[in-house]
Design a protein that fits this description.
Mean pLDDT: 90
CATH superfamily of one domain: Bira Bifunctional Protein, Domain 2
CATH architecture of one domain: 2-Layer Sandwich
Largest sheet: 6 strands, antiparallel
Number of helices: 6
CATH class of one domain: Alpha Beta
CATH topology of one domain: BirA Bifunctional Protein, domain 2
Length: 181
């Protein structure tokens, strides 16, 4: 191990660099592999693929963010129930976590959702005006939202998979099912 090296914990650094070099309107997606110091379980892993989105323009509101998330979840999951819970992220205010209703049809469902039926799929929020100011974007003129989600968690929901670790076990029978993704 090298104590001077930190593996990427999110893909937000792409957003900052883009904002430093480009003027609004800004619409970007930044995918990548990320690493976290987390316990590995059926619903979370220390390595996963993340995609973050950023939208900066004039008059962007939380209603725009909510509408984008509703469109995204409807496209992926159909008319599934979603909920937004208040949360905290250092660079957005207000912030929220988005959950999709997974259900409670089996013992596995209880384990995956901790008995609630809900599974978190993303964090999101309005970009903090201080972030805009730090990259020379006028926060009085522009606003925006950001979101980030783990790809494996989305695939778990789409394919009713009960254990996220299956993606990292290198079992060719499992991985072959997802080569078109």
């Amino acid at each position: 191990t090298n104590p001077d090296v930190l593996l990427r914990t999110h893909t937000s650094s792409v957003q900052i660099r883009y904002m430093e070099k480009n003027e609004p309107p800004i619409r970007i997606l930044s995918p990548g592999r990320v690493f976290r110091n987390e316990a590995v379980s059926s619903r979370s892993h220390c390595i996963f693929h993340q995609i973050e989105g950023l939208y900066i323009d004039e008059n962007v509101s939380f209603a725009d963010l909510k509408q984008t998330i509703q469109f995204f979840t409807t496209e992926l999951f159909g008319k599934s129930k979603i909920r937004m819970r208040p949360s905290y992220f250092p660079f957005t205010e207000p912030s929220a976590e988005v959950d999709v209703y997974w259900g409670l049809n089996s013992e596995t469902d209880y384990r995956i959702t901790k008995g609630t039926g809900w599974l978190e799929i993303m964090g999101c929020g309005m970009v903090d005006p201080a972030v805009l100011k730090n990259v020379n974007i006028d926060p009085d003129k522009y606003s925006g939202y950001a979101f980030g989600m783990g790809i494996e968690r989305i695939v778990m929901l789409l394919y009713q998979m009960s254990d996220i670790r299956m993606f990292f076990e290198n079992d060719i029978r499992t991985l072959e099912q997802f080569k078109s993704l």
